[in-house]
Amino acid sequence: MDLEKLRFLNEEEVHSIAETFGTPVFVYSESELIQRAEAARSFPNAFGITPRFAMKANPNGNILKIFRKHGIHIDASSEFEVERALHSGYSPEEILFTGQQPPSEARLREIVGRGTDYNACSLYQLELYGKCFPGTEISMRINPGLGSGGTKKTDVGGTTSSFGIWHESIPEVKEILNKYSLKVKRIHTHIGSGSDPEVWKAVAKYTLEYAEIFPETRIVNLGGGFKVGRMSDEISTDFQKIGAPVKELFLEFERKQGRKLHLEIEPGTSLVANCGSLISRIMDKVHTGPKGMKFIKLDSGMDSNTRPSLYGSRHPLIAVGKKPSGATEECVVVGHCCESGDVFTQEMGGEPMTRKLSESEIGDYMVMEGVGAYCASMSTKNYNSFPEVPEVLISEDKKIHLIRKRQELSQIFQNEILLP
Ligand SMILES: *Cc1c(COP(=O)(O)O)cnc(C)c1O
């Protein structure tokens, strides 16, 4: 396989950012984020589109602010994310709350009372909403009976998934709706991350059937899960391609039902994954003999990017040295945690794999690409007491801003209560 290349950084920027802020450090590009926001806003649609950023992918308030400025609304997956979005400047009406964990009745009243839409993901959640807000409108997440994800761990549809109201529970749904005089205004499905475009399109079709069953539906939200190629041999889902047949379905629905449905999508990964890089330093190099392997040890690990250990995900790795020799080497790249699974180049089952890289020395930098989604936000933070990694944003005017400080050691144990 060919060597991977830097995406939005150049070698000079790698050196200057690492020298200014230390390593490891996440770097995000505002220009890339804006391009992705614009691509989401031009998703094919028949009667209007609202893209929502699944903020769990990267909840830094500065990223949220950029998206808000460029017309992206929010998918919040917990009551805490709702507050975080508000804190960054979003208005309550721009947020849809779709949570696995139901809030308390008091919190639900507060959140919905301010104007945020609540998406009921279970019969219990639907009943809870009905009790608090009888005679109003509700959104509902349906598990359409099939799912698709890049891995089993990211598949959130079908019989093995707890996400959403099971599609055969429609009679129970109708009972609850009648009991509390609720009307369904939004039908929602989200089947997994890195899903097969064909399955996604099939689910769009099923979702419209629920819009037919619930005649007051005005909004259809098809979730996210659009596959993103991080490595150069992986392919990203093209919004124009996947959206065109879905637009046709909406037009057909209007011809048959006489209703113009508004489309919502909820990309997380595809809005941010390739807008972030992680700069680490090569701290050590070891080998396991002539029949063994060569290993490169970084000053980052699963506490900054858990995806390789969790899913066997591949991220481009680019060695950036002071004096490039042009030579290459086959190495396993490992993280700094005392945990055998902390390997950045591994197969799905956890087997370490070598990667062809430019020859490097201890002290050189290693840039990991495709780390904008589910890395800073989904790490095994503070494992081995390594501090949380700082984040830097390169703004559109090419200025470099620190948007999260490196965590201090004392912050790691500040909530600990040391008994005398
Ligand atoms: C996580 C999530 C998304 C985004 O998924 P991606 O794979 O990051 O695009 C969208 N909608 C809901 C409800 C989610 O939980």
* Proportion of strand residues: 15-25%
Elements, N to C (H/E): HEHEHEHEHEHEEHEHEHEHEEHEEEEEEH
The chain-level mean pLDDT equals 95
**Structural class designation:** alpha/beta
Number of helices: 12
Regions with pLDDT < 50 over 5+ consecutive residues? Answer: none
Helical fraction equals 25-40%
Shape, principal axes of CA atoms: globular
Number of domains: 2
CATH architecture of the largest domain: Alpha-Beta Barrel
| Beta strand count | 18
> What is the CATH homology-level superfamily of the largest domain?
Alanine racemase
Rg, alpha carbons: 23 Å
Biggest beta sheet attributes:
9 strands, mixed
Bound molecules: pyridoxal-5'-phosphate
CATH domain class name of the largest domain? Alpha Beta
Termini Cα gap: 58 Å
Q: Can you tell me the CATH topology of the largest domain? A: TIM Barrel
